[in-house]
Amino acid sequence: MDEVxxxxxxxxxxxxxxxxxxxxxxxxHARTAVEVEAMALAPVPTPxxxxxxxxxxxxxxxxxxxxxxxxxxxxxxxxxxxAAGATVRALHEAPLxxxxxxxxxxLAAELDGECEWLLTNGVLPADxxxxxxxxxEGALRPWTPVFTHGDxxxxxxxxxxxxxxxxxxxxxxxxxxxxxxxxxxxLGHEERLGDVLAGYGTDVDLDVIRxxxxxxSLQAVRWxxxxxxxxxxxxxxxxxxxxxx
Length: 245
Known about the structure:
41% of the residues lie in helices and 18% in strands. The protein is α+β, with helices and mostly antiparallel strands. It has a single domain, classed as Aminoglycoside phosphotransferase (APH), C-terminal lobe (Aminoglycoside 3'-phosphotransferase, Chain: A, domain 2), CATH 3.90.1200. Strands 1-2-3-5-4 form a 5-stranded antiparallel sheet. Strands 6-8-9 form a 3-stranded antiparallel sheet, with helices on one face. Helix 4 (126-136) packs across helix 7 and helix 5 packs across helix 7 (206-226).
């Protein structure tokens, strides 16, 4: 009998693995619906949906291994990182999904709220928050919406050799800024940005990608703390913020 492995579990959702099947339990049925539709629409490798019976979604494991993990060196080849960039470009060139994404005003309000919480609770030094907030504001400008994954962490991109075999966890997919996806993919792995952009194949504004690094890290700290994760672990979000100093 296959053992049940708890992949991740917190108050919002849990993911279990049983053999080659992942069971995602999510009380937000709309979020699961987005994930299923996004995987059907995305012109890139995605997991096979086996069945969906809310609140559970069953998907098949994708071959290969994750491109890397935040806070750990990536052993993937430069070609694999470039392949990830090409995969992201294919997604961004696809027709827009039918549901909207978050706009600049909503994101600005979120940034305000997260920074206020960090300062009020003394979670991070004031100069660290202030400096990164100033940088993060550079991301909040008009952009042409594209089909974005929305949570393109390196642990969500699977590769085998130099090829992408699957992109997982599509619950945050929607219309958004292309540079946000590129920033999340390279968060904590700035040295890989050149390889990703070589595969992406078009010039981008590097200052905006750096701004999204600061935005994402500021945005994530409270959620991570409240859900039992450590954003101050080596190479993770707090170190990303410190690197901007």
